[in-house]
Records
---
Amino acid sequence: GDSVTQMEGPVTLSEEAFLTINCTYTATGYPSLFWYVQYPGEGLQLLLKATKADDKGSNKGFEATYRKETTSFHLEKGSVQVSDSAVYFCALSDIDDYKLSFGAGTTVTVRA
Amino acid sequence: DTEVTQTPKHLVMGMTNKKSLKCEQHMGHRAMYWYKQKAKKPPELMFVYSYEKLSINESVPSRFSPECPNSSLLNLHLHALQPEDSALYLCASSQGIPGNEKLFFGSGTQLSVL
């Protein structure tokens, strides 16, 4: 079945550092890929998504590119802020499917 | 209004109690979801309602009973829960086109079963 493997944390960074969180997937079809973020005490929010190979999703300085050849969707941000401290989940959804398969989540802490 | 509202925010219940979790959205979404999330784990899908009909039940025990009274409301009725059911229960909604949709999540109900 479909699955997502993402880099486990926790990850601790200083402000303005470069962040990358690795995510790879296994799917039988042509899934859509997502990054969701969960701030403390809140539900999840969609950060970005990509629906086909070579698509790049971007939002709030974060980027991820759908790489079919490496089955990856790594999340990157060039200069993190304290407010980026959260748990980040990579997820996929296969076509015509309501189910989201989530990765384990990566806790990111940014220090001032 | 792009919010999914969940009540209550916190709930403590005994194993013999009956309680309900409520979820509401006014975005015109036609799919609504219940997820269960344990601490430091990803959310696990429990139920999906599509156009007010139960579309997915992920083999959830019968002590959890979902209900979708209309397209804006989703309830989760709880009865005879176990301590291991303690978790954050998240409601979500989406437009209703499966496959590449953005899910909007509520802030969740933190449930403790004593």
Note: The interface with chain B takes residues 32, 36, 41-46, 49, 51, 89, 93-100, 102-105, 107 of chain A (CB under 8 Å).
---
Amino acid sequence: GAVVSQHPSWVICKSGTSVKIECRSLDFQATTMFWYRQFPKQSLMLMATSNEGSKATYEQGVEKDKFLINHASLTLSTLTVTSAHPEDSSFYICSASRRVSNEQYFGPGTRLTVT
Amino acid sequence: ILNVEQSPQSLHVQEGDSTNFTCSFPSSNFYALHWYRWETAKSPEALFVMTLNGDEKKKGRISATLNTKEGYSYLYIKGSQPEDSATYLCARNDYKLSFGAGTTVTVRA
């Protein structure tokens, strides 16, 4: 149990376009989902926390208008990178938990390359 | 976001040998420490959640210890096997996770 999927697993897009990444909890209801970003040889950095039906809470330094997060249901959260630039190229990974501060179950991640 | 450090960044182990590596973290206001195992192209998999000073947890050949007073945790792999090759992440939990950069273990047959 506690499987989380992400789609797509990798995506290449042109600078200035927007990209949507989906995170789904397949066999449980996720009251909270988390979005992380990882640059090469660095640690996973929390970008934002989203609770179902409410606005996401963004970490300091993360632009909420650039990284749009929607958590419309208990099994789906989406991250949209708007007007992507090459510096947004990174590995994006989501996690889901049944309650805040409980165990987080991770998706396999999405590799975004902006050309 | 807390400063969590892991060392070494990578290590190579001969099959059958045992190894260990470190996670250090700020010790004040400690709540919990998580260890994850992350194989390439897969999701990070939870290994342990540790909360109490002196905690020792074991899962097969992998075990971990926790010292909350000095702010470190060790993860041990006994009798390494090729399937143990992965990146091992630790994260301190303060109602959100602050990750270290991981230790990548490569077990040579």
Note: Residues 87 and 104 of chain B are 4 Å apart (CA to CA).
